[in-house]
Amino acid sequence: MSEQIVPDAMKIFAGTPIADHAHCSNSRSDSPVAPWAERKRTIRFRWLSSAMLKPRRNANEAIPPLETTAPATIALFQPGRLGDMILTTPLFHALKAQFPATHLTVIASEASASIPSSQNVVDRVIPVPGGLLRQIPFLASTLRATTFDIYIDIKDHRSTTSRLVAEIIHARRLIGHRTAIGSHPGGAELPAPAPPGHYVDSALAPMQLLAPGSRFNRRPMLDIPTAAYRAVDEQLDPGEHGMAAINISAGDPSRYWKPEKWRALIRELSRQFNVVVLAAPNDRGLADEICSTRRTARTVRTDSILEAAAVVDRARVVISPDTSIVHIASARNRPCVGLYPPGNENAARFAPLSDRHRVLMPAQEETLAAIPMEAVYEAALALTGTA
């Protein structure tokens, strides 16, 4: 288990706006003022660096090749959502497999920090609350006295946040995409991702520089604490292990399936399985209503993503829109039916990695809600051998 570090934030720049979320798009602006905006951002980055009293590396200093240097410390920056964090876990394990004695620190958003905190290969987790752009002073004060041998940022697109953190971090070597972190003395640029590659392959890209020619496990890994299993088992009967687990929630309204289709699916699945329904807090009323007509279906309330993972691990098959639940099923290698919006690129990047899985998508001009119930039911039966 890793150590969580949550020091008091120092308001180093109190009263000085560093950046505004409304102006932090990841896409390039076509506005004629874009060059000046970029220049202002560059000035701000340099000012932050100076304000943090960060020692700059001498550009003439000899830097050994990455693969010949065994780092004592590595910091990994992953501020993404839960699903992104789960899909980054193969990198945690690859780094520790290559460098067993290395102290690994993961810098995460507060919302996803429980994932690295549960990993026994992660030594320290720094959860940053409230959005990284507003909490740059917090992160700068936390890292001010620490120097890392290697700092890694796997983001492969332009990011103001990544550039700010790359300026603040004290590291002898930086690994990342230039579009995200810019150019730095001692920096090593990651190869451009080959579309439509899976997110896991992008996450593992630093190993191409740190261990050329080596192969690492692509499956996400998730350690579930005993307390999470206990909280779930208190709501299940012993005979309900091996149930069909359904997640009705999603991070975007366009990824919701219709309630009447969930009801019809539960009605059909109930002929072969007990059914457990997972839902985000704001969807629990809907989940209870969907389950209310079937004695063999119930809602399991979970207070954390790790408790939801315990439900997934107890399941015989998992059915979910494209959310973190799909990636948890991959981590626990549970058969999974994933409901995806139209477009092969998204499905290829975030496809399930369970040995047995099905990806269902509507026609290009339709929404996820158009996926037929019969197709989902037949996929679930096929994955469990009960067709």
Give an account of the 3D structure.
This protein is of the alpha/beta class and 387 residues long. It has two domains: 3-27 and 39-59 and 66-210, Rossmann fold (3-Layer(aba) Sandwich), CATH 3.40.50.2000; 226-384, Rossmann fold, CATH 3.40.50. The protein is built from 15 helices and 13 strands. Residues 5-33 and 55-60 have low confidence and may be disordered.
Keywords:
15 helices; Rossmann fold; 387 residues; seven-stranded parallel β-sheet; alpha/beta; six-stranded parallel β-sheet
* Class per helix and strand makeup: alpha/beta
Major sheet attributes: 7 strands, parallel
CATH class (first level) name of the largest domain: Alpha Beta
Could you please say which CATH topology of the largest domain applies here? Rossmann fold
Order of helices and strands: EHEHEHEHEHEHEHHHEHEHEHEHEHEH
Quick check: average pLDDT?
Answer: 84
Strand order in space, largest sheet: 1-4-3-2-5-6-7
Task: Look at the structure and name the CATH superfamily of the largest domain.
Answer: Glycogen Phosphorylase B
What is the CATH architecture annotation of the largest domain?
3-Layer(aba) Sandwich
CA-based gyration radius:
23 Å
